[in-house]
Amino acid sequence: MIDLDRVSKSYERGQPAVRDVSLHVNKGEFVFVVGASGSGKSTLIKLLLRELEPTKGIVTVNGYVLNTMKRKTVPYYRRGIGVVFQDFQLLPDRTVYENVAFAQHVVGTSGRLIKKNVPEALRLVGLAGKYRSLPRQLSGGEQQRVVIARAIVNRPSILLADEPTGNLDPKNSYEIMKLFEEINNRGTTVLVVTHNRELVNQFQKRVITMRSGVIVHDEEEGGYTDD
Amino acid sequence: MINGFFYNIRQGLKNIWRNRMFSIASISTMAACIFIFGVFFSLLMNVNSMVRTLEEEVGITVLFDEGISEERIQKIGETIKDNEHVIDIKYTSAEEAWEKFKKEYFADHPEYADSFSEDNPLANSASFTVHVDQVENQATVVTYIERIKGVRQVNHSDQAVKTLMNFNSLLTVISMVIVIILLVIAIFLISNTVSVGINVRRQEIKIMKLIGATDSFVREPFVVEGAVIGLVGALIPLLILFFAYDKLIGMLLNHFGVLNNLASSLPTVYQIFAVLLPIGLVLGLGIGLIGSALTIRRHLKV
Fold first, then answer.
1. Between A and B, how many CB-CB pairs are < 8 A?
2. Which residues of A touch B2 (CB under 8 A)?
3. CA–CA gap between residue A98 and residue B87 (Å, rounded)
4. What value of ipTM does the predicted structure carry?
5. DSSP label at residue A207
6. What pTM value is reported for the model?
7. Which of B3, B203, B207 lies nearest to residue A108, judging by beta carbons?
8. Does A77 sit within 8 Å of B211, measured CB to CB?
9. CA atoms within 13 A on the CB side of B117
10. Which of A72, A190, B82, B246 is most deeply packed, by most CB within 10 A?
């Protein structure tokens, strides 16, 4: 599903952000990637989204080899991946419904299917009743749920989340993580980048720890380690 | 993909509405441009048609030596007819010339003409009126006739034609310059409008790309925006021109002192618009597309 083979990524100046990382994530797995800021987590996400190309090594996702992928293929590759970011990135001038439907329009879904899929996604994240609200009328946790609904409405096989609880209180963070777990239970591979120690320890999933661009721990049902 | 296309048409129209101040500025410039283009185009068509009419009407007048015999005149006529560019030759006797003169100039005051009584002041004014196939060949024919023996004088009044043709070239140059300047402004304004739209939608574009929008999908709304601005900007002045045409052209022709006897053969508004409408719309659409394409290329690295 996700396969990194000795991947390095250097920026023009300074230390490589990711160094010689090899990693394999199976279909249906739930993985936390943890580490301090600057440890290379965000670079890892960008590599997986093909916002960046590796300097060395091979990245294979969903059967696509990202190194040799043609520009034209990138959008189709990305349709297989849902993304959730720390800052909510909802379109402020559109309702909850329109924000989620937006993802479907982008990939050319028919109006009939959009009417069916969007309420379904909103129901899953528990916001069916608020489809007409604007983002600013929602709490932070609710906004993040809309982002998640948008990320899953196209039914991606992988869900990438970059610090999804960075702006949320513990209760909301827990609920968001529960939601990811439920999405994972439905068969979607979930990869969550976070530095929220308590949350990681609460959920007992596979934990990959990065430091200075290198994977220092990779444990099944692990916890957040500092060493 | 057809779903996405309709979605993007809606988005393009929304863009226009969202930054309507810029859109209005672009549409107005576009409209001014097409309007001026339309006015000059109509004028050119009219002047062209006048030139054609004049070419047909204006002939060469051939006058003969004093006291020339009828027989000789006939011979001269035959020689003139031999020239390949001559399509028509008509004889006017001195009497006919005088009658015509009287009709044209003394119609209201026949008493003036009577004072000449039987003394025809145009006694030596028997003439041939020669028509040539094309106005450009006039000079050749004139030289040819001047060499014929017995010919006193050859009058050719291509001066009017020349003046009109010069006027036409001048009009063409002026209109081209104005239209080109306005087109550049229009392209610039449309490009500006579209770039405002792109900036407003930066975040949206970023999300679209992460979700998996194709490059062309991201560009489409902005292409639609440019095309619609161009088309609307062309359609408005064309409509105005269509309804104001008769008045406007009448006023302009009057202002430039165009002869009334040429006005009857002028093209109708339908004849003008059969050409002007498609040209104007294509021009508007083209400018709109160029304006948005330039901006998308520069500001929308997808």
1. 57
2. 108
3. 76
4. 0.85
5. E
6. 0.70
7. B3
8. no
9. 0
10. A190
